[in-house]
Amino acid sequence: MRPDRHARTMLPIPDRPSPGLTTYDAKDPDTAYPPIEPLLPPEGAPNVLIVLLDDVGFGAASAFGGPCATPNAEKLAAGGLTYNRFHTTALCAPTRAAMLSGRNHHSVGMGSITETATSAPGNSSLKPNTKAPVAMTLKLNGYSTAQFGKCHEVPVWQSSPMGPFDAWPSGGGGFETFYGFIGGENNQWDPALYEGTTPVEPPATPEEGYHLTEDLADHAVSWIRTQKALMPDKPFFVYFAPGATHAPHHVPKEWADTYRGKFADGWDVQRERTFARQKELGVIPADAELTPRHDEIPAWDDMPAELKPVLEREMEVYAGFLEHTDHHVGRVIDAIDDLGVLDNTLIYYIIGDNGASAEGTVNGAFNEMANFNGMAALETPEFMASKMDEFGSPSSYNHYAVGWAWAMDTPFQWTKQVASHWGGTRNGTIVHWPAGITDKGGLRSQFTHCIDVAPTILEAAGLPEPTMVNGVQQSPMEGTSMLYSFNQPDTPERHDLQYFEMFGNRGIYSKGWSAVTKHRTPWVMVGGTMVAFDDDVWELYDGSTDYSQARDLAAEHPDKLHELQRLFLIEAVKYNVLPIDDRTADRLNPDTAGRPTLIRGNSQRFFPGMGRLSENSVVNIKNKSFSVTAEVDVPDGGANGVIIAQGGRFGGWSLYANDGVLKFAYNVLGIQEFTTAGDSPIPSGTHQVRMEFAYDGGGLAKGGAVTLYHDGQPAGTGRVGATQPMVFSADETTDIGYESGTAVSPDYTPQTSRFTGKINWVQIDLGDDDHDHFIDPDERMRIAMARQ
What are the residue boundaries of the Sulfatase N-terminal domain, all occurrences included (predicted)? Predict the structure, then answer.
């Protein structure tokens, strides 16, 4: 092996010209320069593939004893290592930020998700430039880098088409190629996609068989093949992060139907079956105990009989979704194998960025956004039964019930968001690297954490942790390389101290012991009461004899508990966990949270062609009066199509023309729709059209009166019976002159939504505090009239 000629602790590696003779004539025999050599990492550095699934509990995948078939995970485990004490942060964006940086999530500003960022350093969603991502380190050392799938690490005020793109994967994230989506989740049938930082539309429709996971796998396979065809000497770093299996649970019907009838016995029985299978496989210790169900989680036998078929279908769809995801992960791995480079490819298959999600309410959801808006009561058992056959399809935005999430976290307590207990933070993980692992099919039980992935990759590649990146001195990584455990199964763990915290749920692990306290319940999104932090009840577990946190020893060992509670506070101070913040709704408001907002004031003007504007890029019209005014040129024969639309099929509003008539539609969660139509068509020529919404007031989510205008003259009235108070969508956007994604109104489709006339401008104005006056659009209407 040749010695590495580069000093790699300072990145980019400084150019150092070689001194020597400079000749006058290039034909001089003494003219000699060393050949140009492309930058490469040290000889033998492996390719790297990280597969990170979304919202999969420890007990979901068959590779870890669960009911959802994951044959590709099983195959990888048979040729690699299974880690049964690998940990995440209990929530998606924090896990991703921590894994890609090798630092704790509060250290990189990601105490929770970007949508709830505050001005506190540990919760700002801003990664310090002293903590460069591992993709950047690998790229600057000669790796080809690409990310496919979900990126939830972009601060919400930086997610517009104007950036800045410092936190985007292909901006400052270190990935030369990015194809995927920005945000926490996406419609699997009709996603909002980006190629680099450019919005792109899906290459096909759901009717044509499109599905996001398949599309991501197609792009990953194509990129890997191209990279090896053009740069065979260069290793690659691929981060494959599908939106699956985060809600909405979208999957072709035939994959869900495979599981028909397999969950009829309910979640309590399923946990027992999974627990037995886990022991049979040996992925949990023989003396592990199955933790009991908490009172906050209903028993299967207590669920209404008429709802049980709905609950069964929720789980059938989820199981099909996970199997479908594993199938497409397998396609990426097979492509690497077909190229003959699998042996020297280090693969991390991390089955979940947190525990299974309990954000779907105790009954599950046809549209999970109902719960995020505090409106889950709209989804009655009768309504759910009427929608059961649509679950998983493009007409749904579904999620399963809390009980299934609990079952998918077997054998542990609790779920996603609950950072205190292993149900929220322990995820089955498989590591495969034939060139570096001799113990095929081995089990590893050392405590490990997602912040250990980055230092492991660097050690495997023979690369030092950089001390300087792009002129900025770097702070040390906080993770511990797992490489020591690859071929030494009984070596004591090296990562033996780790804090956990999420929305006040918190814990500490130290040398086998864990002290934990569950502070808030994840499916109570709006309302609810919480005790003071100092009144939280702490539990104590001895992991050396209690794998699943089944026996609380707080009463027997109070001194040990107090020791660990103090240790939690020490670690919390060290890594910017304080102040602990258990707020949710308050943190959705940027003014309350203290984070920037793109739009201030009571008015915002748009121009035709603007689109893919996230909710954080648009003035907030929720729970207040507002108006929409547009100057349009209507052709002879009338106009059709969208003037402005926000949201989509599962919640939003649209001002549009249909058969020449001005209409305003307000869609509440895809459950209720209120449409107001004009009394007559919009005349041809240049005109000002306007919609005024007079909010009823008196609280959140109220309705209001709608008035339509042509050139200042009333042209129609109607009423909206209710509104969405918190959020329209996690993935749908605001578009001017067309509508991307799904359509707010059944009067048009995205394909027919483009406005057939001309839009000169569109403006949203907010009403005053009395809810019945609007900001005057000054002389715009008179100018429009003068043009005729």
Answer: 46-462
Burial degree of 439 (CB within 10 A; 0-12, 13-18, 19+)? middle
**Is the Cβ–Cβ distance between 258 and 165 less than 8 Å?**
no
Distances in whole angstroms, Cα of residue 548 to Cα of each of 411, 425, 502, 513: 6, 12, 20, 12
Strand partners, 499: 508
Separation of first and last alpha carbons in the chain: 80
The 3-state DSSP class for residue 484 equals: helix
CB neighbours of residue 196 within 10 Å: 15
144-151 and 177-182 as β-strands: parallel, antiparallel, unpaired? Answer: parallel
Cβ neighbours, 10 Å, residue 684: 16
Please spell the DSSP secondary structure of 530-588, one letter per residue. ---GGGPPPEEEETTT-TTS-S--TTT-HHHHHHHHHHHHHHHHHTT-PSP---SHHHH
Q: Are 657 and 672 in contact (CB under 8 A)?
A: no
Q: Contact 481/456 with Cβ under 8 angstroms? A: yes
**For residue 452, how far is the Cα from the chain centroid?**
21
CA–CA separation, 264 vs 620, rounded Å? 44
What pLDDT, on the 0 to 100 scale, is given for residue 644? 98
Q: Give alpha helix (H) positions in 339-412.
A: 369-372, 381-387, 402-408
Q: What is the pLDDT of residues 131-154, one digit of tens each?
A: 999 999 999 999 999 999 999 999
pLDDT of 623-645, one tens digit each?
999 999 999 999 999 999 999 99
- pLDDT tens, residue by residue, 474-493: 999 999 999 999 999 999 99
Residue with tokens 């969405």: 724
| Distance (Å) of CA 474 to CA 132, 314, 465 | 7, 46, 9
Identify which of 400, 396, 398 has the alpha carbon closest to the alpha carbon of residue 206: 396
Q: Is the pTM of this model over 0.85?
A: yes
Beta-carbon contacts of 243 under 8 Å, excluding residues fewer than 6 positions away, are 54, 149, 150, 181, 185, 186, 188, 191, 212, 213
- H-state helical runs in 410-471: 422-425, 453-461
The answer to whether residues 741 and 648 touch, using CB atoms and an 8 Å cutoff, is: yes
Q: Are strands 661-668 and 651-658 parallel, antiparallel or unpaired?
A: antiparallel
| CB under 8 A, 24+ apart: contacts of 775-780 | 775/602, 775/603, 775/627, 777/629, 777/688, 777/690, 780/629, 780/631, 780/688
